[in-house]
Amino acid sequence: MPKSDWQAELASSYTRVEDLLAFLELPSLPFASTLKTPFPFRVTADYARRMRKGDACDPLLRQVLPLGEELLSVPGYSADPVGDLDALVLPGLLHKYRGRALLLATPACAIHCRYCFRRDFPYADGAMTRQREAEIISALQADAGVNEVILSGGDPLLLHDERLAALIEAIAAISHIRRLRIHTRLPVVLPSRISDDLIALLRQTRLQCVTVIHANHPAELDRETAVALSRLPAEGGRLLNQSVLLRGVNDNAETLAELSETLFSKGVTPYYLHLLDKAQGTAHFDVPLDEALKIHEELRRLLPGYLVPRLVREEAGKPYKTLV
Length: 324
Ligand SMILES: *Cc1c(COP(=O)(O)O)cnc(C)c1O
Ligand code: SF4
Fold this sequence. Notes:
GO terms for molecular function: 4 iron, 4 sulfur cluster binding; isomerase activity; metal ion binding. [4Fe-4S] cluster binds at residues 109, 113, 116. This protein has helices at residues 5-11, 17-23, 45-49, 59-64, 130-142, 161-172, 186-189, 196-204, 223-231, 253-265, 289-302; strands at residues 88-90, 93-97, 100-106, 148-153, 179-183, 208-214, 239-244, 269-274, 310-313, 322-323. The protein has 324 residues and is of the alpha/beta class. It folds into 2 domains: 5-71, no CATH class; 84-323, Aldolase class I (TIM Barrel), CATH 3.20.20.
């Protein structure tokens, strides 16, 4: 089978820090040897092209560059900060919140964000086999309380079209499921993935589709991203964005206001601004709560209410994401 454009682009991603730093004309910038971290370096060429050359503090670079700080053990930071292991119904299926079940469709991502709370999740045993998928579909079938299935991961849009089509079809065959939500960073980091075939597939299902993308900084959204976003079903506020508040990336109200404005100009409604989940190795991204509250307060001064994302924190065992 010939590789489609997006697969070829994915295959040309940077997997060596040295290569990215050479491209950015920053050959002497220090970084942690990836050999010592369990979460390897990875970034798409598309995303790298939006970084400013020669700028060691570029907010996009900062999201992917493995730093020595990751190796520090900081009190309060753990491998499973949000209680996902306790919410596992089956391998690959999380049920934390009423009505919504979250399916870990694949452990793979196109880019490895250093602040990710899933960086230490036991994904190696998380690969989605057909057997597992069948078990998950049976579990969803048996639970009439679930009306929305969230495809997450990893990045669910890294599944090939045939696989994704089969999965969506199996979910749509369950009569009590109304909505399909897709949590994906690909419209931002690999816009070519939003192909004609994918759009046809999403338009075909009887399920109402909601897409939640993930961008943290306005510089992540370029023209190609805009084209990808314009193709996704957006009517009725069904195209949303979630961000993480990150030290050195977007920890000021002006940047976040520009992010909201840029997203909205491309048809995307700001949804959540997450406080950092305290995953091991991410403490250098933390913005303390009092500062986060000040930034959010300032954001409310700068923007119309509908462009202000909800500031939330995920707490293990809570029935919803906590508004702060
Ligand atoms: C965030 C999350 C959801 C979705 O929560 P919403 O508030 O509906 O966006 C569902 N399941 C899990 C496990 C989650 O972490
Ligand atoms: S799951 Fe999302 S935040 Fe985590 S590494 Fe993958 S793309 Fe980044």
